[in-house]
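U., I forgot to send this yesterday:
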Amino acid sequence: MADDAKAALDLPSSLCLACGLCCNGVLFKDVELQPDDVSSVLLGHGLQLTRRAGIQRLAQPCQALEGCSCRIYPERPARCRQFECLLFKSVAGGQTTLGQALRIVQRARRQAARVRQLLAQLGDRDDSVPLSVRFRRMRARFEGGLEDNESVDRFGELTLATHELNVLLSEAFLPG
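Result:
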């Protein structure tokens, strides 16, 4: 087997298992379940399901994520099985090397960690909630205008860090 073909077969294990951004609440706030998904199986694995607009969803960060590995991989929802991020497609298509992709993943993970750090400094340490939701909650708090100058400055840093993360996610990970 040629090295390129072998690399393509190993891509999920080499890239996805170094990333996890599609499952850890950075890329998505939930996963819409499909008609073929068996919610009782997911609930049996201890996963949290929610309902919004009449559609059942798997809450993010996914409770099946351990490090960057899915402990229910064979039984994961259809959307999880179907999803390939833009970066994955770029490597699979030969436009990006695996090494370049891994550096982009590390950059995104560092930026997400920076956002989490700033949220924690402002009092939000709830890692069970997606970053986008945590940022919106924090923004709503600051729209009230009752914060001290140091906190306002920190919120400015958070806003910039969140924007930088969102730009990176849009450019490298999110299709369309």
